[in-house]
Amino acid sequence: MSLNTSIRNVAIIAHVDHGKTTLVDAMLRQSGIFRENEQLVERAMDSNELERERGITILAKATGLRYHDVKINIVDTPGHSDFGGEVERALKMVDGVMLLVDASEGPLPQTRYVLMKALEARLPPIIVINKIDRPDARIQEVLNEVYDLFIDLDAAEDQLDFPVIYTNAKLGIAKMSPDEQLPEGQNGNLRQLFEAILAHIPAPTGDPDNILQLLVANLDYSDYLGRLAIGRMFNGTLRLGDEVSIAKLDGSFQKTKITKLYSFEGLKRVDETVGRPGDILAIAGVEGITIGETITHVDTPAKLPHIPIDEPTIAMTFTINTSPFSGREGTYVTSRNLRDRLDKELLTNVSIRVEEAGGPDSFKVMGRGELQLAILIEMMRREGFEMAVGKPEILTKTVDGKLHEPEELLVIDCPENCTGVVMEKMGNRKGKMQKMINHGSGRVRLEFLVPSRGLIGLRSEMMTDTKGTAIMNSLFNGYIEWQGDIPSRPTGSLVADRPGKTTGFAIFNLQERGDMFVSPTTEVYEGMIVGENARDKDLNVNIVKEKKLTNMRASSADEAIRLVPPRLLNLEQAIEFIREDELVEVTPHSIRLRKKVLRANQR
Ligand SMILES: Nc1nc2c(ncn2[C@@H]2O[C@H](COP(=O)(O)OP(=O)(O)OP(=O)(O)O)[C@@H](O)[C@H]2O)c(=O)[nH]1
Ligand SMILES: [Mg+2]
Fold this sequence. Notes:
The chain has 12 helices and 37 strands. The strands form 7 sheets. Strands 20, 21, 22, 23, 24, 30, 32, 34, 35, 36 and 37 form an 11-stranded mixed β-sheet that branches. Strands 14-13-19-10-11-18-15-16 form an 8-stranded antiparallel β-sheet, with no helix packed on it. The protein has a 7-stranded mixed β-sheet with strand order 3-4-2-5-6-7-8, with helices on both faces. By secondary structure, it is α+β, with helices and mostly antiparallel strands. The N and C termini lie far apart (69 Å). Helix content is 20%, strand content 33%. It is globular, with a radius of gyration of 27 Å.
């Protein structure tokens, strides 16, 4: 074994929004990797369209920079729990982590999850308390909470011996103590953080003369080169043009030739001719490769251990669009299209599984959470797909002959005066309160264990009940015995009983029955859901009714009808709303809700 002291590989992990991508921005800027005139967008690593729109990281991504003579490879990871699989994989490429914690929010469920994974992998952490500029920062308290978390996770003695750095990622400042005054001219300086990485993240080990071993942890695609595998060199030396063997997951070996070798520098890929232990590389010439496979010596292959990933906990059925409007907007509408697209997804998205669901037109897609599946659906509709998706269901399993279901640790931050309504809501959903912490700031933090089922649709209800003031975060906590019935949405649907175009007149007469989802002159079909009925039963309604022109006007006031603006549901809201006998119809331009059985007289 030799030590490659000219490289450090570090992943940046945290709960959602604690500032990972912003810190990577600052590190890249200060490494001088960009030309003076180069325009940099904020959160430059969040490069895909949905990441930019939503302001969250969805895919883990690697970048690299140089500090003095050392190449530092950084893997930025997503903080949302639905994308935990990305974090698990990213940790396979690195020798240590930076654990970011928001100076005001403190450790939250995903902080716990990512730290647990890092400790399990025995990766040394640097603790970074970020957002120290927040007016509500409680730096010392948060640091104590971090220690508590380590102890709670049974960290070993040596793992508790971590360095702590205090940062304002937005300004690009790192300090060794919160009240340290940086010397003149050192504002916008992350020197302390870079030094901590060199000092505390171990240099990669591995023997350049040993048998080649490169573990594939990510995939990418290039129009010119085809599939790219992104991975970490553990042993041996890889040269451009080398004949290699891919140790496949199924135990077989596939010979191939490396046609391109890249390393990462800032936001670019840089051509390389040779890779050595510790390098994080993208390689081409590896058609058919998947995540978890090893690239190794062509004659004497040696496989690295497979990357195990946590199981999915939630499933949704994807089917072809069978509504009367099918094929109007989408390019890809057949079951063949759907199957091919899902197969493609499986290649890069390791935390997703797909099964046939009773028929060739129907697939059960399993993942880690509603958001993960909603993002997949959103990507597909943008690519031109049409489909129908069913209500998310949780995945149960049988342990010792008994039915078990997934449970989540749920943390809710809300104003003190909302505690009552939150506890009542959680009680209905079989939530058990574990902790209640009053920070004395007028807000309380409540922790519950609750069946994952109880979270479906919870977010929108909670937002209404607390007028948008509650913050919810949850984390899969394992399987528990089935908790019995949990009541679902207490309302029914208003369902169009015939096709046509909606009229203001009909909507006006229906709006006192509940919330409408459509505006006037919307084209509807029989069986389409046009609103939420305030009562608990579905109601078939004629929403295309025209006002009879022959009627005598009683008064002129009758003319000026006032319509309540419709509640237009976005994809996630629509998915949360539907019941078992309902579907969301998704096309490139529309999101419609419908009954599974469209004909009123057949329901
Ligand atoms: N005040 C303050 N805001 C910050 C700081 N660092 C980041 N932010 C803000 O926090 C928000 C979230 O930052 P991101 O960098 O996207 O957080 P993230 O951890 O990458 O989030 P995910 O990738 O979605 O988990 C952005 O609005 C940032 O501008 C900081 O030091 N101080
Ligand atoms: Mg991010």
